Amino acid sequence: MSTSLINTKIQPFNATAYHNGDFVEVSEKDVLGKWSIFFFYPADFTFVCPTELGDVADYYEQLQEMGVEVYSVSTDTHFTHKAWHDTSDTIGKIKFPMIGDPTGRITRSFGVMIEEDGLALRGTFVMNPEGEIKVIETHDLGIGRSAKELVRKVQAAQYIATHDGEVCPASWQPGEDTLAPSLDLVGKI
């Protein structure tokens, strides 16, 4: 039985990421003060992973405009991230930090480590500026994620964070009606 990480705070970590041609240090302190996405994937130089990372790269500018930073994470090293970035057109378009987690510490703290393989599940975590996890999505290795849906989830999380007493119904899009839970709605939806 696992315990949900929803509304828990990001655990302390220090790691090296490949970002915009440099190796940079990243810690949980870098996450605080803005919305963040941690996007775990199994491994560099694989098959579904580049399709997902390329998809997120296509939405990165929109996420940045929304005040969101993206951190991709795998148990590869930051050196491997650089090599992949330098040799793949799809990965070459990535502008967000690619965190290396060769010890698996970060991957384990988010509960997505496949211990027998030393790889991460496909796990997506959206955190608010306080470092609290608000969205979790975890997939088996063969199931790719949608960056378009991730953007929608971030929009919903940001909306409810600033509109106390409102909730976003299924498939909600910005500008659409929300709900204000009350006794009057019970059995009416």
TrEMBL record:
Presence of keyword Oxidoreductase: yes
Entry keywords, A to Z: Oxidoreductase, Peroxidase
Assigned EC number: 1.11.1.26
Name of the protein in question: Alkyl hydroperoxide reductase subunit C
Organism from which the protein derives: Pseudoalteromonas undina
